[in-house]
Amino acid sequence: MKFLHIPLLRGNNSSKQTMSKVTMPILLAFFIFILTTISCSLLSYHSLLKINDEYKEPSFEFDDLIVPESLPSTPVNKCDIFTGDWVPNPEAPYYTNTTCWEIHEHQNCMKYGRPDTDFMKWRWKPNECELPIFNPFQFLQIMRGKSLAFVGDSIGRNHMQSMICLLSKVEWPIDVSYTDDFSFKRWKYSSYNFTMTTFWSPYLVRAKQVDSNGGLYNVYLDEFDEKWTTQIKEFDYVIINVGQWFLRPMVFYEKQKIVGCQYCSLENVTHLSWHYGYKKAFGTTFKAIINLENFKGVTFLRTFAPSHFENGVWDKGGNCVRTKPFKSNETRLEGNNLELHTIQLEQFKIAEKEARKKGLKFMLLDTTQAMLLRPDGHPNKYGHWPHENVTLFNDCVHWCLPGPIDTWSDFLLEMLKMEDVRSTSKERFHL
Ligand SMILES: *[C@@H]1O[C@H](CO)[C@@H](O)[C@H](O)[C@H]1NC(C)=O
Ligand SMILES: *[C@@H]1O[C@H](CO)[C@@H](O)[C@H](O)[C@H]1NC(C)=O
Ligand SMILES: *[C@@H]1O[C@H](CO)[C@@H](O)[C@H](O)[C@H]1NC(C)=O
Ligand SMILES: *[C@@H]1O[C@H](CO)[C@@H](O)[C@H](O)[C@H]1NC(C)=O
Ligand SMILES: *[C@@H]1O[C@H](CO)[C@@H](O)[C@H](O)[C@H]1NC(C)=O
């Protein structure tokens, strides 16, 4: 299908003057055809966005949508933006550790002597379309008067830092945090009245550390983590993420009783693997959001970002020394990575249906496949000085800045633009 040009729909004067009795019905029929096409495309895109395995089906011929005049003119493609490959991008990176002060120490790989720089010079190329590089002006335009929350672990925080660096081309935010705890940072972009916040919640549900050295946590699978559930009601966009912490020692609780544990070596407590807790934690999280009174925001699930330890596990000399992305045919999702992703998708699918009944929108920010292909994007040993004694000596979990995590903002903006087209068109055409 061809690009549909908007001038016809705008009812432009010159065409009215030349309109004869013959062309009138033809135009009318064309108009109706266009309206039907638009609504079909919008609905299809909407359902495509819902769940990853539906993406994998070959999509129809349609490629471009009308872009209402109020929006920038980048065509919005309907394609599976999350399946593709990394291709060279000599123009990247879009910031450095000297232009952006929001690169935290552990992600400042250049400062700690990472010798190679090619890992910054890639962009994501979906198989069936182009994914535009993040445009900070466009993003802030869409976010004017709105608010965005990142809820989850340190990878979510990593994402927010990346976003602050990308947005710094337009504006620096001011710190409007309610606490000194840097896990609960709140930033405001004054000229756009846009607020961005992180909520630290590595299990998404209530959890409590029980011993300080072993890092054993009690995880209360059926209890909301009120540190964020009581705060997000006012937010327009909420990005949920977790994963890595479920691979650690945990004692699971339900109805305030121990139901089992993973790697906890407590006497008489049955082994229960992370799969159980992970699934329940997502169930509880989505329930918290769906049942939140007066919440009208859009919820994104940013799917699990795989780590890349090779030559050993994380605390036994494992490292990540590659300097190039994988091609999509060189590796695939398997083992824990696959299971972490699959459970997320299953729980998301269930929740999305429930949410829809309440008029709430859930969207999948499915970064897993793209990040699986980036073993080269982690700090490895360049997240600290060599003599420093840190827990995660080789960090193959977080992402260097600048680096591949910057692409998450490309994805997010693309999804927001689609949202915007949808809601603008809805008002425009009463779909
Ligand atoms: C930035 O990275 C360079 C190496 O590329 C390093 O020498 C410098 O100390 C870093 N600066 C900051 C502020 O992190
Ligand atoms: C800023 O945005 C908030 C919503 O996030 C809104 O309540 C408030 O009225 C806005 N302020 C201005 C000055 O537009
Ligand atoms: C574990 O179970 C055994 C047998 O039921 C009991 O004798 C023992 O006291 C229990 N240990 C703990 C720590 O509860
Ligand atoms: C992967 O695909 C590329 C072409 O895109 C090809 O050159 C390469 O040989 C393939 N590698 C494997 C392991 O199949
Ligand atoms: C590193 O720190 C840990 C605890 O902080 C300590 O137990 C260990 O001995 C230290 N290792 C070295 C080589 O200093």
TrEMBL record:
Q: Where is the Trichome birefringence-like C-terminal domain?
A: 131-415
Pfam families referenced in this protein's UniProt entry, alphabetically: PC-Esterase (PF13839), PMR5N (PF14416)
What are the UniProt keywords, alphabetically? Membrane, Signal-anchor, Transmembrane, Transmembrane helix
Q: Name one GO cellular component term.
A: Golgi apparatus
Q: Which GO terms describe its molecular function?
A: O-acetyltransferase activity
Transmembrane annotation, as ranges? 26-48
Ribonucleoprotein as a keyword of this entry, yes or no, is no
Compartment annotation: Membrane
Q: How does it sit in the membrane?
A: Single-pass membrane protein
Q: Which residues form the Trichome birefringence-like N-terminal domain?
A: 78-130
- Return the PANTHER family for the record: PROTEIN TRICHOME BIREFRINGENCE-LIKE 19 (PTHR32285:SF48), PROTEIN TRICHOME BIREFRINGENCE-LIKE 9-RELATED (PTHR32285)
Tell me the protein family, please: Belongs to the PC-esterase family. TBL subfamily.
This one is known as Protein trichome birefringence-like 19
Top-level taxonomy: Eukaryota, Viridiplantae, Streptophyta, Embryophyta, Tracheophyta
